[in-house]
Amino acid sequence: MVKKSTKTAAIALTAATLLLGATACGSKNNDNNTNTGNAGTNAGTNAGTNAGTNAGASDEKVTINFQNIYPDPATPSYKMLHAIVDQYQKDHPNVKIELESMNTDQQKLKLKTQAASNTVPDITIVNPSAQLQPYLKVLAPLNDMIDKNGLKDTFQKGLLDYYSADGNTYALPDGNNIEVVYYNKDLFAQAGITAPPTTFDEFLADVKALRAKNITPIAEGEKDSWTGSFLFMNILLRTNNGPGFLKDVNDGKKTFKDPAFIEAVTAMQDLIQAKAFEEGATSIDYNTGGNIFKTGKAAMMIMGTWETGAVDSSAVGPKVGVFKFPTVNGKGDPDEFMLAPGSAFAVSANSKHLQATKDFLNYFMTEMPKKQFELKNAVGSGQIITGDFKAAGYSQLAQDVLEMFKSQKGGDIAFDNTMKPAIAQAHLSSIQNMFVQKVDPAAVAAEHQSAFDANK
Questions:
Q1: Distance in angstroms (rounded) separating the CA atoms of residues 395 and 129
Q2: How far apart are CA 156 and CA 39, in angstroms?
Q3: Is the pLDDT of residue 36 over 90?
Q4: CA dihedral 384, 388, 393, 398 (to 10 degrees)
Q5: Averaged over 413-421, what is the pLDDT?
Q6: According to the UniProt entry, where is the signal peptide (predicted)?
Q7: Residue 59: predicted pLDDT
């Protein structure tokens, strides 16, 4: 077991419960606060009672290949991964965990190739909803594992639905997040900005004020094309006056030529043309883009709340505040967010050591919330974590983010988690192209509609 301080263990088992994350399903009803107090306490007790005991029961040498997306040693997630793996190997000398760490886009591409050749590693990373569907045939159902020792009950209500099909759960998420705007208070002050923007016009004006002071307004790693899409979808959430645009397209109620979509493309282009992003954003990957903000070289980073721990531990941590994405042309509710059910851990159906792999993953998911809490990286956890975050030393930034979770009314999930892969790829390429050249918003809409019509 991972060694924890007495203080941390006491906090994790306190009766006062603060739940991370709000509605996992994008519903207007925040029902994650219902009947969850006991589950949160059990996340560190019942589920861990027998976790990981079976894998060490014999002397058989076992190697488990663990593909993951935590490549950056500076991040709390990397430290969490290695701490848990190291402890497990110490407790189970016959088990070797081979880690293969890469960034998100690299892993997605590699998994596609591995699935086609039936060489999926013992543990891999998958994404929710539409992105999960192509891999169901090569993944092992995890029902037996999550039903044992109460592990299933440690997850936020409804969250596992994104990783399930036909009554089976195929993956366990590392988080459940919302998209927010992190900002450097010192750089805002240097540009004469006295308060975070609440409207898109104010947001655009702040971008121009920052540029006038030779400050990069927004850090963006658009080489990993999902990042620009994540931002764009927040704009669409506003111009559509609420969630459900892509669902309406899928249901035949709207098309991509709808005014709300064209308005969102126009607003996105306005940001790009105002030089909101660093030069050459499409040649900069996600981790590098994030580090531009974390080293004080950009004023904002628009990203999921999984970044809170890394921002806190960075050079600019004490200077960083957070605000909700503003309304656009008077439309949208700032308490509706882009929702991000996290990347998730799945087990290969063809694993040579299937039971040992499940035993390890059970241990990993039991220890992860405790280690994340200890590393002050629990904001956006997919599992219920109890405790007094202020007493545990969580920053004001983390506490402010937690308040946003509590006010969350719902929202949308990412484009590539909603649409078929071919449509999603056309979308990602189309948005990425906007960073390279000025486009006709109507033509972008038509491009999206053509991809949808060809692949629906």
A1: 33
A2: 9
A3: no
A4: 50
A5: 93
A6: 1-24
A7: 77
Q: State how far the alpha carbon of 126 is from the alpha carbons of 57, 175, 348, in Å.
A: 29, 13, 11
Q: How far apart are CA 146 and CA 338, in angstroms?
A: 28
Residue-level length of the chain: 456
End-to-end CA distance of the chain: 48
- Which CATH number does the domain 6-175+342-387 belong to among 3.40.50.1860, 3.40.190.10, 3.40.50.2300, 1.20.1250.20? 3.40.190.10
Nearest-angstrom CA–CA distance, 383 and 291? 27
For 43, half-sphere exposure in the C-beta direction (CA atoms, 13 angstrom radius) is: 30
pLDDT digits (tens, 9 = 90+) for 141-161: 999 999 988 999 999 888 999
Regarding predicted confidence, which is higher, 241 or 456?
Answer: 241
Residue range(s) occupied by CATH 3.40.190.10 in the chain: 6-175+342-387, 177-339+412-455
310-338 pLDDT tens trace: 999 999 999 999 999 999 999 999 999 99
- Rounded to an integer, what distance in angstroms lies between the CA atom of residue 255 and that of residue 268? 19
CATH 3.40.190.10 fits 177-339+412-455, yes or no: yes
According to DSSP, the residues that pair with 320 across neighbouring strands are 184
| pLDDT of the residue at 19 | 36
Question: Exposed, middle or buried by CB within 10 Å (0-12, 13-18, 19+), for 61?
Answer: exposed
Contact 251, 244 (CB under 8 A): no
Question: How far apart, in whole angstroms, are the C-alpha atoms of residue 130 and residue 299?
Answer: 34
Of 12, 90, 18, 97, the residue nearest 47 (C-alpha): 12
Mean pLDDT of 119-142: 96
Can you give the pLDDT at residue 48?
45
**Minimum mean pLDDT among 98-107, 385-394, 426-435: which range?**
385-394
pLDDT value of residue 157: 84
